[in-house]
Amino acid sequence: MKSKKMKDEIKRSFFTYAIVVVTVIFFIYLLLLSIVFRLTVIEPNEANHEHVLADVESGFAAYSNGMEELVNASSTIHTFLETGEQASEAYKILYDFRNHQSLHANFLLLNDDEEVVATSFYSGTEEEARNGVALNALTHKLEGAGVVGTRLTSPLRDVHHRSSYVFSTAIGGEEGLLGYLFYFLDLQSFPDQHYVYVTDLFENVIFSNYSYGLTTLGKLDVNRKGNWITHDGDMFYKTQTTLSKQGIQIITMTPISIYRLLVLYGVLTMMISSIAILLVVWFVAPKIVAKSLQPFDGLVALMASKKKYSHLDHEPNYEEVEIIYEEYRSRVSEVERLLDENQIIMEKKRISELKHLEAKFNPHFLFNVLEMIKYELMADPQSASDMVVKTATLMRYNANFGQTLVPLGEDIRYLNDYFSLQKMRYGKRLHYEMTFIPESILDEASIPKLLIQPLIENAIKHNIHKTHSLSIEVTIKTDGDLLTIEIKDNGMGLAKEKVEEIKAIYLGEKEASEQTGLHTVHQLIQLLYGDDYGLMMHSQVEDGTIMTITLPLKKG
Questions:
Q1: Which of 151, 155, 177, 393 is the most buried (most CB within 10 A)?
Q2: Quick one: pLDDT at residue 361?
Q3: pLDDT tens digits, residue range 539-549?
Q4: Rounded CA gap, 460 and 365, in Å?
Q5: Per the confidence metrics, is the pTM higher than 0.70?
């Protein structure tokens, strides 16, 4: 096998990684450009489109439905058309209806002879409006189509308004046709940063905020296939919705020609920059490598002058490595010795940490028990005596640092004494139950001493004063090679955010003065058995809390 030069390999790697870096930067640029495009073009366009769509759809529906109710339910308008009386009241009704709509309009009320009897137009404009819609009115009368929306072929120009769409309906009475009601929608205004068009199904423009793309006949002449369209050399992003019930289309277009140039110039700039960077790397890399490897070359020259040994048991990758390897082998035994010494030191440190954690399990309830004994001495000396004995047993067990692992049955006897003391304190307010699956596990399994008590203590401390009756269930069972200890209470439970905060504390991800007992339990388990074991917590508001300890099953 031909040996390779490390210098040549480094130079090749240098150039390869330069290509990778340039490629990644290029794709990041394209990704960021697409994100910017979405944030500045697509999302604003779609948001504006939804706004226009909601306004137009609700406005058209309001006129279509409202006018039908207006002419059918208003006896005032009927009286006005029949007799000419109640004119002011009829005007008020027509103005009020118009003023309550989101789309402003001017109204025109004709009698059955197609004469103007009421209007909001300025003088002269109503005649133009009447002449333009009279034929339509007759058609509506004959067809009986109810409220009909129609684009005006010749838009009306009022003094302050321009109308290109009209809602019209015939007004019938008991004896036949009474007249016609028209509402001419004013030209609507839309945000200037987008091209907004409202057309009928035949491309006739009803509203628009630009004349771009409009023919002299008022039609929209833009190829609208797909979301990306081109018209007269300009590019747009388009969103379109058709409201078939109203017979209209809403189109919003955002110019994107500047982004096309940005992509073009950006890609061109990236390509030129990439080529320049690669050329620099190609010519500069050998000099950098040579400069960086000067000490290494000196070391190679020094070691090459020494006697070679014949115990190389592999084919070296580089000539330089073959020389260094000899010196490396002479250091292996020294490194192994240091590793053995370090392992001994680490084991001593681990044992020291275990003893330190074990010492932290001092019962917090001691002062409460002593206070309770004080009052119990006066009320029931015999009960006080029992409490003293149980407390002494617990403290003796707690103070025994001779061993870390104890038989499960021995720790359960300690828990029973602990529960007895708590029952003496809280009476019927506290209930507990312990289950073992199988029962023989009490005599077979071993666990770290004082592992369960802190979790029981937490359950009592945080729930006993918040519930009428606190029940605690301790279930210990085997699952293959695992020993699972579950402590379940019926307390108030915790919100999800609080559970996550407590988990962060006992997992060591967050420092806090509270929940140190949980942290100590979790840390002790992982010190003894590794990261695959430890403490888990599940809680819901008003559904209690479940703490689960997972350990390897240790028999003996």
A1: 151
A2: 44
A3: 999 889 999 99
A4: 11
A5: no
Residue 268 CB coordination number (10 Å): 10
**How far, CA to CA in Å, does 140 sit from each of 148, 181, 370?**
8, 11, 97
210: its two tokens: 């630009």
CA distances from residue 552 to 386, 450, 482, 525, 549 in whole angstroms, order as listed: 36, 17, 5, 10, 10
Rounded CA-CA distance 199/453 in Å is 76
3-state DSSP: the chain helix, strand, coil percent, rounded to 5? 55, 25, 25
Among 98, 108, 110, 184, which Cα is nearest to 141's?
Answer: 110
Identify any residues that bridge with 478 across adjacent strands, giving them in sequence order. Answer: 483
Low-confidence ranges of the chain (pLDDT < 50): 142, 302, 306-316, 352, 357, 360-362
C-alpha 46/C-alpha 51 separation (Å) is 9
Strand partners, 231: 234
In the sheet that holds 195-200, the strands lie side by side as: 205-208, 195-200, 248-255, 234-243, 228-231
Q: For tokens 């960021």, name the residue.
A: 32
For residue 140, the model assigns a pLDDT of: 57
- Contact call for residues 506 and 519 (beta carbons, < 8 A): yes
CA 67 – CA 152 distance, rounded (Å): 19
Among the listed residues 288, 287, 283, 277, the one whose alpha carbon sits nearest the alpha carbon of residue 21 = 277
Residue 173: other Cβ atoms inside 10 A: 14
- Give the up-direction half-sphere exposure of residue 144: CA atoms within 13 A in the CB hemisphere: 3
Alpha helices in 430-515 (DSSP H): 441-444, 453-463, 496-506
In degrees and rounded to multiples of 5, residue 380 shows phi and psi of -150, 90
pLDDT of the residue at 453: 85
Q: Are 62 and 105 in contact (CB under 8 A)?
A: no
User: How confident is the model at residue 475, as a pLDDT?
Assistant: 95
Distances in Å between the Cα of 209 and the Cα atoms of 23, 191, 235 are: 43, 8, 18
